[in-house]
Amino acid sequence: MQVAATVPHNSRKCCIGSKRLINLAPDAWVKWVTQRPEVVAKEILGSEFHWISRETDVLVKAYSATHGDFLVLNELQLRYTAQMPLRMRAYTALAQERYRLPTYPVLINILPPPSTLTIASGYDQEFLGLRAIQDYRTINLWEIDAEIVFEQPLPSLLPFVPILRGGGEVSVVQRALQALRADEQLNQLESLLAFFASFVLDTPLVQQIMRWDMAVLRESPWYQEIEQRGIQQGARRQLIRVLEQRFGEIPHEAEIRLEGKNVEQLETLMDSAIAVSSLDEFLVVLST
Fold first, then answer.
1. How far is 83 from 79, CA to CA, in rounded Å?
2. Starting at the edge strand that comes first in sequence, how are the strands of the sheet with 57-64 ordered?
3. Least crowded by CB within 10 Å, which of 86, 133, 135, 193?
4. Can you tell me the distance from the alpha carbon of 24 to that of 29, in angstroms, rounded to the nearest whole number?
């Protein structure tokens, strides 16, 4: 999948790809995520705000005769993280404030998170007797039946068919490939389909289905994103192992906080984990 060369960060590449995917058939997309057949898409709006850089969502202005104009905030995440509920709360409020329209937030998780992480269906926090609540719809792609992509149809989901429920069969992947190649607007997404097919099928089989060199796949920003996530998760696991060897079991809250750290930050924390004399001392460093 081609993206703008001027964008420096992998997560932004992923975002631009998501915006292009939704833009392929915005009406079908908003009907699907809202589960309301009368909803239509009017335009894709900017999601950059004054004091926060929005890199992973797609904001669509939609309309229905019942509800009038409203926003559909689509947050597409390669993998869910523990920070997502708070981010969904913040993004929804920022979008509603900027455009002065009711907002329907949707979190679309592409790949399953680690088994130790539970996907929250909303944000709910109480502090000093006051509550902050944000509901949002959660869609886990691995729970979606692949057949709906062809039946509705949902061309924006064609590249994800291999990771949908029942989509990992060779015949279903071939069917998705045929649909992509039949449309000039969609055939550029072939490498993205191959990328997700590589999660469920052996590489030689994917090559045989696609009939091209897998070097094309490795140039995809999605492949680079996965590769970077793998390095990050490996560094995090190594840091947790060192902490457990030195100080025993570490608090679950500390593990969650480590999820948001990039590789460079984890490497710095590894130096601290080796240098400190107690777990409490490390937790102070983690808090700074």
1. 11
2. 40-45, 57-64, 68-79, 103-111, 137-140
3. 133
4. 9
Task: Name the nearest CA neighbour of 147 among 170, 119, 172.
Answer: 172
Amino acid type, 14: C
Spacing of C-alpha 241 from chain mean position? 27
Say if CB 183 and CB 155 are below 8 A apart. Answer: yes
Dihedral sign (CA 192, 91, 267, 237): negative
Q: In this model, does residue 219 exceed pLDDT 80?
A: no
Rg for the chain, CA atoms, rounded: 21
Phi (first) and psi of residue 236, to 5 degrees: -65, -45
d(CA 205, CA 148): 25
Q: Is the peptide bond before 153 cis (omega within 30 degrees of 0)?
A: yes
Please list, residue by residue across 239-258, b when 16 or more beta carbons sit within 10 angstroms of its beta carbon and e when fewer do: bbeebeeebeebeeeebeeb
Structure tokens at 281: 């001392």
Yes or no: say if 26 and 60 are a contact pair by the CB < 8 Å rule. Answer: yes
Tokens found for residue 286 = 């983690």
CA atoms within 13 A on the CB side of 109: 23
Express each pLDDT in 235-269 by its tens digit: 888 888 888 888 888 887 788 778 778 778 888 88
> Tokens 């729970």 belong to which residue?
143
Whole-angstrom distance, CA of residue 173 vs CA of residue 146: 10
